[in-house]
């Protein structure tokens, strides 16, 4: 069933999913996590990673590499939080390793470097911005597979992720079916509204609040 939800989510966009979350009074829409190159959209399930500042001098395994090594399915999106302002949480070696493992992309509540290298291999990366400053000896991995805070949204391991040029949205796995059901309904309704405008109907009438009220659960289909 999870594969079916990912497939259905892939036919939507972040704005429609965000609208569905609004109608259901659910969190999940984030602000500021945008594509860091002109990359494809990402749809999949979160593998969460929590980073933090390095405090000792003992050598450690490079951050995120154990998470990539452990991935065994082709529906995963790496979701990373806890970095340091202006310091990279992602680079070209990690991108190549993730691509080899079939990871669908990376979303960072922070910064990435090696943007051109990610683009060269077609690996999608979303985040707050680009930097050249290395994470080495500055940032370490604290935990993985746990709830993390990403741009003000709590993201759990296995939650659903959709990211495109408008930004990034997270959907709790326990609410995915109702969110997708409603998002598909919204998409159909809005497609009809676009066609109505193109056919000459007044946009004032088409976009009246009553039309959006009809989209809500229990409203007219």
How helix-rich are the residues, as a percent range?
25-40%
CATH fold label of the largest domain? Glucose Oxidase, domain 1
Q: What's the level 1 CATH class of the largest domain?
A: Alpha Beta
Biggest sheet statistics: 8 strands, mixed
pLDDT below 50 for ≥5 consecutive residues: which ranges?
Answer: none
Gyration radius, rounded? 19 Å
Total DSSP helices: 8
Pattern of helices and strands: HHEEHEHEEHEEEEEEEHHH
Q: What structural class do you assign from the helix and strand content?
A: alpha/beta
| Mean pLDDT figure | 91
Kindly estimate the percentage of residues that lie in beta strands according to DSSP: 15-25%
The structural domain count equals 2
Question: How far is it from the N-terminal to the C-terminal residue, by CA?
Answer: 25 Å
Q: So, the CATH homologous superfamily of the largest domain?
A: Ribonuclease E inhibitor RraA/RraA-like
Q: Which descriptor suits the 3D outline? A: elongated
Q: What CATH architecture of the largest domain do you see?
A: 3-Layer(bba) Sandwich
Number of strands: 12
Name some characteristics of this structure.
221 residues; alpha/beta; Glucose Oxidase, domain 1; 8-stranded mixed beta sheet; two-stranded parallel ribbon
Q: What's the layout of helices and strands?
A:
Layout: H1 2-9, H2 14-23, E1 34-35, E2 42-53, H3 65-70, E3 76-81, H4 92-100, E4 105-108, E5 111-112, H5 115-120, E6 125-127, E7 129-130, E8 139-144, E9 148-150, E10 153-155, E11 160-164, E12 167-171, H6 176-198, H7 203-206, H8 209-213
Parallel strand pairs: 2-3, 3-4, 4-6, 5-7
Antiparallel strand pairs: 1-6, 2-8, 2-11, 9-10, 11-12
């Amino acid at each position: 069933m999870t594969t079916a939800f990912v497939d259905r989510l892939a036919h939507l966009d972040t704005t429609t999913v965000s609208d569905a979350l609004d109608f259901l009074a659910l969190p999940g829409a984030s602000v500021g996590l945008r594509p860091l190159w002109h990359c494809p959209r990402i749809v999949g399930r979160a593998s969460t990673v929590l980073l933090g500042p390095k405090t000792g001098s003992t050598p450690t395994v490079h951050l995120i590499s154990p998470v990539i090594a452990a991935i065994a399915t082709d529906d995963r999106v790496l979701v990373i939080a806890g970095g340091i302002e202006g310091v990279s949480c992602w680079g070209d070696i990690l991108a190549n390793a993730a691509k080899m493992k079939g990871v669908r992309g990376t979303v960072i509540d922070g910064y990435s470097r090696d943007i051109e290298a990610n683009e060269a291999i077609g690996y999608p990366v979303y985040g707050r911005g680009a930097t050249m400053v290395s994470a080495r000896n500055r940032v370490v991995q604290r935990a993985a597979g746990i709830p993390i805070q990403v741009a003000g949204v709590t993201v759990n391991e296995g939650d659903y992720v959709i990211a495109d040029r408008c930004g990034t949205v997270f959907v709790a796995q326990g609410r995915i079916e109702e969110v997708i059901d409603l998002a598909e309904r919204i998409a159909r309704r809005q497609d009809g509204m676009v066609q109505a405008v193109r056919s000459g109907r007044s946009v004032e009438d088409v976009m009246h609040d009553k039309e959006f009220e009809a989209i809500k659960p229990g409203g007219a289909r």
